[in-house]
Amino acid sequence: MTLPRLDPGERLLIYGIGNPGRQDDALGVRLVECLATMGLTGNVTLDANYQLAPEDALLFSEHDVAIVADATVAAEAAAPYDVHPVEPRATTAFTSHALGIGTVLELSARLYGRTPRTYALAMPAYAFDVNADLSPVAARNLASTVDAVVAMLVDRSPDDAGRD
């Protein structure tokens, strides 16, 4: 699946997840950091953290579309990224220390009466040593993902990113 098309005026949240001290685990955070340097304006909110928390439900409820970017070790994940829709889903866990995207959306619906159209953006990760540097392959995938997100924001097809 490709990145979503945005309708004019839709409020977009791009939320990066990851640990900046564990190499490729930082991919979601690094995506947000790259986008933050581009001076995006308008209806785009950028945020990042180690993980989602119950408090994020309010932030999600304030947007029409959300993209949650994170690293993945899933063998079937496409490079440079894979995108799939996420629906609200109530789950029970031993702790509220870390929540899944669907759980945050469920909280958003219950507490604030609305949820954004939400997508998980998974970027393949290859190295997790204690180190702030991305692996070379992850860094290339990140650059391609940044290009695709920027293309989406200027209302071009993500598949055309970098083909001017």
Q: Roughly what is the average pLDDT, rounded to an integer?
A: 90
Instruction: Report the major sheet.
Output: 5 strands, mixed
Please state how the strands of the largest beta sheet are arranged side by side.
Answer: 2-1-3-5-4
Low-confidence segments: 156-164
Structural class: alpha/beta
Shape: globular
Sketch the topology as an H/E string, one letter per element: EHEHEEHEH
* Share of residues in helices: 25-40%
Strand content: 15-25%
Name the quaternary structure.
Answer: single chain
Number of strands: 5
End-to-end gap = 22 Å
Q: How large is the count of helical segments?
A: 4
Rg, Cα atoms, Å: 15 Å
Report on this structure:
By secondary structure, this protein is of the alpha/beta class. 28% of the residues lie in helices and 20% in strands. The protein is built from 4 helices and 5 strands; from the N terminus they run βαβαββαβα. Strands 2-1-3-5-4 form a 5-stranded mixed beta sheet. Helix 1 (27-36) crosses helix 4. The relative contact order is 0.24.
